[in-house]
Specification:
Beta-clip-like, 4-stranded mixed beta sheet, alpha+beta, about 170 residues
Length: about 170
């Protein structure tokens, strides 16, 4: 039994620059669930006690709460960031295809849609033409990202964005 789930239509394989990634083995239709993240719920202070690799496989689920990944990587934890992703969050922990994904394509999502604090900031070399060069806990504040990822932010960030624009709830932008 594992803490995270990866669709049987994908598998993990080594990737030159960033270690590992999850790749589609078969076509995946837009809207299909590709992964669900699990782990242990910890605070920001507790997260600081764990090594950076494990923290980098963890995910922020609320202002002060994180899902700590397992000590040994699991396939569901190895989905890489892209600044131009083909998957997106549905809620805090479920990942779905945002578009049709062809067999052989890497599954990715934008970590800026779940990160609202500086626990896992890094220089990005995703290769997308619109790559922003660095992924930070403040990316959700960027208007261009807010529009492009509208509907794909973790709910706690969608609420922050709505509040920033003077609205309650996660109303469309
Ligand atoms: Zn990038």
């Amino acid at each position: 039994m594992q803490h995270s789930w990866l669709t049987p239509k994908a598998a993990v394989r080594a990737v030159g620059e960033h270690g590992h990634g999850a790749f589609a083995l078969a076509p995946i239709a837009a809207g299909e669930v590709v992964a669900a993240f699990g782990g242990w719920v910890v605070t920001a202070a507790q997260l600081d006690d764990f090594d950076p690799d494990r923290v980098s496989r963890s995910i922020q689920i609320h202002d002060e709460l994180y899902l700590l990944a397992t000590e040994e990587p699991e396939p569901g934890d190895l989905i890489n960031h892209s600044c131009d992703p083909n998957c997106g969050l549905l809620g805090e922990t479920v990942l779905v295809a945002r578009e049709d994904v062809a067999a052989g394509d890497e599954l990715t999502f934008d970590y800026g849609t779940c990160d609202g604090s500086p626990y896992d900031e890094f220089d990005c070399a995703c290769g997308a033409p619109r790559c922003r060069g660095r992924v930070t806990g403040d990316d959700w504040r960027d208007r261009e990202l807010q529009v492009r990822h509208n509907g794909w932010f973790s709910p706690y960030l969608a609420r922050r964005i709505a509040a920033q624009h003077g609205r309650r709830g996660a109303a469309p932008l």
